[in-house]
User: What shape does this take?
Amino acid sequence: MQTTVKQVHQKELFGHPVGLYILFFTEMWERFSYYGMRAILVLYLITETTDRNPGLGWTNIEALALYGWYTMLVYVASIPGGIIADRLLGQKKAVIVGAVLLVIGHSILAIEQMWAFYTGLGFIISGVGMLKPNISTMVGGLYPKDDIRRDKGFTIFYIGINIGAFLSSLIVGYVGEVYGWHYGFGLAGICMLLGLLQFILGQKYLVGVGDFLGKSANVEDQEALKRPLNKIEKDRVIVLILSFLMVIVFFGAFEQAGGLMNIYASEKTNRMLMGWEVPASWFQSLNAFFIIALGALVANFWAGRKLKGKEASSLFKMIVGLMIMGTGFLFMTAATAQFESSGSSAMYWLVLAYMFHTVGELSLSPVSLSFVTKLAPAKYASLMMGLYFATTGFGNKLAGLLGESASHLGEYTVFTGIAIFCILFGLLIRVFLKKLKALTHGAEDNEKRIAH
Assistant: This one.
């Protein structure tokens, strides 16, 4: 997909439109609020009501069940969020509405009442659904058609996401575990407010990006909304939907981070470091740290490979990313084996697992976002992005079910099974790569660096 709004000349910074950095910081604060809350959610649920920092006293199974439903609904809400943007508001206004809903939701969670807990989660689900697909679609709208910088732009954007995730896991995790869970929830709301304010103040760098096509004076925009999809557009939608299968599998495994791996870090990992116990929630920051550290390296690797004429299609990157991420679970297999033999599991297994998960994520997730903006028809731009995030939501639900199964299958079986399945599934998709690429009708064949 290429948004059909008239491209205006974008002021640049470090070789990319300045608007990219407005979206970068907005998403950074949104992810700070979301991942900060996610880092302590399961821990809050399973902490005993009699603890000095009381939680809800739920069982691990109950906590993982709610975690799975919540994280699924957060992303499934991207479908109505995308529809509302495509048909009524445009992406820009939808982002503002979503940010407001998130500020309300995180603020309500700071109230120590059960009604506030469920109400706050409801507002967050609605807010992410409005903001997430639309701000990502706006990133694609910053770049002209066939601009090779698009994948790198999404990687930069993705680094912003993970700066927020890295800081939130440390800051919100620490505040929640040490000072009180509800203080952590409230802090997340304050930071989302910062994201909303800076997005509003940065509108001059987003002129012509994310506007509602229905009110556009551009004839191409109006025609794109009215005419039915042609054969090429239909084929591209098909390959997008098929690629989403990899996304479901990837996040079904990857999202063990906030659930089963979070509990494993809390209950079965020796977290003592020079006489000090590392908070369990801090391990959630490893993924974000590695993304910040390795993001540019991975993006440059794939860009260099493409410029040399080697296989570097989005689908190929996604296949490789899925297999690398799956390989990371073999370190968790080693961790559980160590625990079963000695009664303790070393922290370095978690560090290695998160590092492999991150390299896999960098090859799949930002690439998938860019892929959607390349292939999705203009009239369904936000809807297709919403479907993408919905598939990540289904992956989150799958992650919760897999985490729950550890109660009777054991962590060793679950972690090993995830690794084997991801690797084999990636190899299976690789067999059909040529046929899937044909369905894109050369969407990536003529990418070039655009000179301004």
In short: The chain has two domains: 13-209, 229-442.
